[in-house]
Structure formats: C-alpha cells, structure tokens
Amino acid sequence: MSHGSDDARKTFVLTTTGNFFGIKPSSCLADSPELNNFLDDGNEFVLCVSRLDNDLHLSKKIEASGDSREKVLVFFKLHPTVITEDNLHRSLLVSSMLESPIHTLYQAVRQVFAPVLLKDERWRSEFDPKLADLLSELELGLGSVVRQSGAQPSNKKGWVEEDVLGILTPSDEFQYWADLSEFAEKSSARERAAYFTEQFKFIQKEYGSLDGLSLSDVVDLVEQSRDTLDDVWRQTDFEPYPETRMVRLMDIIGGALGRYVQRKLSGLNIFEEPFVVVRENLRMGVTICEQWVVACDHLTGQVWKRHALHAWKGNKHCPQTLHCLAKRLDEVGTLRMVHEKLLRLLPGGKQQALTSNRVFEPFSGLNPLHYNPYTEPLWRAAVAQFERLMAPSEQEVAGRLKSYIADVQDNPQQLLQVFQKHKELIRRPTISKELKSERETLLARLLDYNRGLKTDFESRCHGSPGDKSGPLIGRNLPEVVNRIVWVRQLIHKVEDSVRIAEALLSDLPGFKGFLHFCDDLLEILRAYEQEQFEDWSRDILSGLVDPKSGISNRVMDLDHVDGRLKIQYSDRLVSLLREVRQLSALGFPIPAKIQQAATTADKFYRQAIVLKQVAHFYNTIDQQMIPSQRPMMLSLALSFEQVIKSKETGGKLQITWDNPKELEVYISKLHSAAEKLSTENRKLRKWHTDFVDKVVTLMNVDLLKHQQRWKDGLQDLRMGFATLEAQKCLWVPHHLQQG
C-alpha cells in the first residue's frame, strides 16, 4: 500500500477534510484501514469524518453522537467502484452534515435540489410530476420536523419552544405555530398556537411574497411587523411568547429585510446611474433597515421592559448585521451626495477632475451592497483612496462656501440654512478645517437662539393658551394637549440645533458648553411636559369620583326641584375622549382608570346621543303640547315618566354607564315610551290644525246661499270627532254629536 503523501486519492480526501475542520490531519490517518477500505474496496460506499478533540476520526458509517451539533464530513461513491486517480472526481461525492441528519437533508432539499428540479426549466421537464409532488411533500415534512424540535436528538420527542435552530426565515416561525395549532397534544397549546398564527396571518402573506413588493410597500411592512410583534408579546390571554423565539424572530425578519434590500438594489449600478435614482433607492433601503433596527431597540429596550405582565428580561436587542448594512448604504449615499454637490459648486473648467469614472474607480470590482466583516477592510481602503482623489476639489469648494457664509453671517436663520444645505460637504475633514471660524460663528448663533427659546418659554409657561403671555394656541386642541404640543415644538427646535451642532461643530472648544446649556434646557422643557400630563391625570382621576365634574359614571339625574331630566354625558366627557386619544398619540401612558372611563364613554357615545334626545323631549314636551290637549295625553305622559323613574331608588336614579346590558334595555324602553308620546302628540296637533282650518272655512260660508255646503262641512267635522272618539283619544260633547 502506498503512503498517503504519494497517493493523490488520499491527499484529496485528507486535504479536503483538514480544510473543512480547520486542523491538519495527523500523518497516521493516511494508512488508516477505514480510508484504505473506502478507496480500494468497491463494496465500501461511505467514509465519515468527524472531529475528536484535536484530531480526526474516520468511520465507514455515520455514528450517532451525544452532541447533536457535531460537524461531520461524508465522502460517498456514485456507484460500486474502486477509487482511482482517473475516476476520483467523477465517482466521488462530498457532503457536510451540520447539527443533525434531518436538518442537513432538509436544507439540501430546500436550498439545492427542490429549486433545481422543480424550478429549472431543463430539469423540470425531465422530472416525473409524481416525483415532483413527493419531493415537495418531503420538503414540507422535513421542515415541520426541523421546526418542531430544531436540532434536538431523536430521543427528545415533542415541541421544544426554546430551540430555534430550525427557524431560518420568518415563514419558518409562522409555520411552526401553524403546525403546533394542529398537532400539539394539549388543547390549550393548540389554542395558543392558533392565536399566534392568526396574529401573524397578515405579515406571513407579505413575507411569503416579499420580492413582489415595492420598497415603499416594505417600509409599511416594517411598521406592521413591529405592531404585530408588539401585540403578540403583550397578549395576556395565553402563556407568553418565549423571549428566545422573539430574539430569533427579530433577527430573521432583519435578515429577510436586509436580503430583500440587497436584491432590490442589486439591479442598480450605484456609482454610474443618475444620482436622483440612486439617492431615492438608497434612501428607501436605509429607511427599511433603520426602522426595523429602531423598532427592535425601542420594543426590547423600553416598551417591553416596562410591560409588567410580560417584561423583557434580557438586554435590548438590535439586529446587528442589518444595522451595519444600513450604515453602509448611508455611507454610499453620502459619497454620491458629496460628489454631486462638489460638481455643482466647482467652476465648469475644474469639473473634469471629478468625472464618475475617475473618482469612483477605487470601487470597481467591489459590490457596496455586500456588507460583511471580510469585505469591510477592502471597502475602507477604497473609501480612503476616493477621499484622496476628492481632496483638491474639496479645497477649491471650501473657498466658495466661505464667501456664501460671509454674505449671511449677520442673519442667524439664513446662516443656519446655508450650513444645513451644505452639511454633507462641511462635514468633510478638508472643508471643516477651512471653515473653522465660520463654524464658531454658527455655534455662537445657535447658543443665542436657544437662549431666546428659554426666555420665550419662561415668559409664556404660566399663562393660558391663546393669551398674550401664554403658550401659542393650536387649532381645536384641548388645553392640556395645546400646552404639550407647544412645549414639544420647543423641544424639537432645541434638538434640531443640537443635531446640526453634533454633526458639524463637535470639535470646537465651545461645543461642550453649548451642549450642557441645551441639555439643561431640554430637561426643563421635558419636566414641564410631564408636569402638564400629571396635573391632567390628577384632575381627571378626582373628577371620576366627583358627581359635579361632568365625568362621573351616572347616566342621568331627575331634578326634583324643577322636574327636569339631566343626562350625565356632558361636553366634558366628549373633550375627555379627545384628550385621551390625543395624549395617547403623543406617547403618554394613560392611567388605567382614565383609560377605562374613556373606553366606556366612547362605547356609550351613541346611547348618550339617544338619551340626550329623550331628555330634551321630556324637558320640552309640555311646550310642544296644545294646552287643551294635555288631559288627553296624560296616560301616555305618566307611562313615559314611569319608565324614567323605574330605576329610582331612595329618590335617585340608580343606572350607570358601567352597566351596559341594563342600560341598553333601559334606553330601549325609554325610546319606545317617548316615541309613543311623541307620535300621539303629533297626531293630535295635526287633528287640531285640521279642525281649526275646517271651522275657519265654515265661518266663511254664507248660510242663506250655501246651506248644503255648510251642512257638509259640519258633517266632516263630526266624522273627525267620531274617528278620534273611536280611537279613545277624546270625549266629544253631546251637542256636537247632534248638531
């Protein structure tokens, strides 16, 4: 038997193995019986290699291991044969196995064989449709097993929620819960899984057809995904969603979004196509990536940390790869933006030095969309070379910017506009250095501007909105919301000035003092904002127990002094609804009691409108009746009042907004009684008007000339009275009956 170093077959097997495991195989392996038998015996089909401490272990079959995550490299033959140098690359196949045989087979079918056999036109036409169906079924079945138990060894049966290794795409996670809703042993587990499946239903459809969506559609999808995950995490009807799975779901959604952005932008030639096209696409790509990073950070770092019923226990989570991709896309956009702005500011004769072919030449051969730690050093080197090519043009442009700034330096607003307009250029190290004195001027102006904001705030914060010495007034805003919106606007102005200073002025000696002043001012403004909200909360909470406040929970009062009916759904309740909605939209956590009161008030708003109509009718019905007809209406009026007083105990009405079913029945009875009374009153008024018209007509008839006409008119009157008497509406005097 030849030694391994002379045997090309053994060199191939051992070199491939060493590269796969990252260790140098020991020389004794070349003469191992397992390797010799595999190569020289036509009946040996498989050679398995696994790692054992710092050496390799060869075997003729795949051995079950205690560690399900163990890597295995498998060499196997296409047909029974002895391996020679000539057939080495025709008869030998190599496959790696990670985590478990099931997982490896699933990924091989899913990523390699199903796409090529089911989608590739050449192979699909040769592949039996029945086999195609079987292959699809195999992929689905393996996927279900992988999602069920991840890479758990086969002796651990059942669904292991904490194991997420089989979850590689958002669809895997959604399908995991769909499978669980059908096959879990306990009905409670099936119900819980069905609930999560229902919650995920909309975004599942979107992620299933992600490549068919436009960039703007995916921006919307990011927002929907955040809301869906928030709902799933906060639900209290079932056992909470596991934190491990949520971390994984955030990461795989991040991965899906990142790959989508890369695919969408891969059709662009980023350094050659028109800047407007590239800028818009990059902006949308950055928005998608950043919004998902911010959503994960906000939910896990703030919102869920404070959610007592299911608090986030781990550190705040950020999909790091997506974050880095966003930074790369942003940097590419900045490079294009700087180039474009320099071109605009350079005189025509000097633009030749900035042709795209020349300045972007360092990036040829690099794909800026492919961010990973291995491509980063190459990217950084290309950026450094790009900046060296740009330096002379930047020097030229710095002089032009100096003259622009000199023209407006006495006008703080215009000065700020020039800096904002050219901020990408001013951030460049060469230009920033040249404009040091101009930047110091801007810093002084920003400090004066913020001092003015502070003075304005202090002079207005104690007044009422709309007053000369009060907060500026917004349209149709409740007072508390008006104050908060006003102070928010001041906060945004201070934050904007801090942002521009951090971007352009952070190296200046006065920057720290400026930042300290702004931080103090922001603290004062935010304290005022919080104080307004807390004062409002206290007032409302005390109003909820005060019957005179207009926001208590009683439905109506019957005032026994003047007999008027009062509905306790005041205009204050309507404004409370607006306040709660607007303060919630501004991000304030509404106290549970106030939220409950607002929810109840909102729920019964329609009933309140009906009740107000009934109360108005009750309070004004006597004015609507003709005095002579009031006795005829007495029984219906008493019935109506009886319904009103049916809930009276100890002289007080005892029905409240807190009892929806009882209130609904009560309103129905009230409405019915009021409708009867109103209908009868309208009918009697109409008869009265008709009788008056007929009597006036008779008074104008000449008895000597038209005696018959007068008799006909009188008969008409008698018939009207008879009709009413038959309906038991009135008693008709005997002399009218006889004429």
Provide a descriptive summary of the structure in words.
By secondary structure, the chain is mainly alpha-helical. Helix content is 64%, strand content 5%. It contains 27 helices and eight strands. Strand 5 (556-558) and strand 6 form a beta hairpin. Helix 15 crosses helix 18 (436-460) and helix 23 runs parallel beside helix 25 (660-699). The radius of gyration is 41 Å and the shape is extended. The N and C termini lie far apart (144 Å). 24% of the residues are buried. Residues 150-158 and 730-739 have low confidence and may be disordered. InterPro entries: DHC, Dynein_heavy_tail. This is Dynein heavy chain tail domain-containing protein. Residues 202-658 form the Dynein heavy chain tail domain. One of its GO terms (cellular component) is axonemal dynein complex.
Largest sheet: 4 strands, antiparallel
General form: extended
Quickly count the helices.
27
Question: Which strand order do you get reading across the main beta sheet?
Answer: 2-1-3-4
**CA-CA gap between termini:** 144 Å
Low-confidence stretches: 150-158, 730-739
Compose a concise summary of this entry.
Mean pLDDT is 81; it is low at 150-158 and 730-739.
Chain-wise SSE layout:
Elements: H1 8-21, H2 33-40, E1 46-52, E2 55-59, E3 72-77, H3 88-91, E4 92-97, H4 101-118, H5 121-126, H6 129-149, H7 170-183, H8 187-208, H9 215-234, H10 243-265, H11 275-303, H12 320-345, H13 356-359, H14 376-408, H15 412-421, H16 423-426, H17 429-434, H18 436-460, H19 479-504, H20 511-543, E5 556-558, E6 565-567, H21 571-585, H22 592-603, H23 605-624, H24 630-645, E7 648-649, E8 652-653, H25 660-699, H26 707-726, H27 734-738
Antiparallel strand pairs: 1-2, 1-3, 3-4, 5-6, 7-8
Helix pairs in contact: 4-6, 6-7, 7-8, 8-9, 9-10, 9-11, 10-11, 11-12, 15-18, 18-19, 18-20, 19-20, 21-22, 23-25, 24-25, 25-26
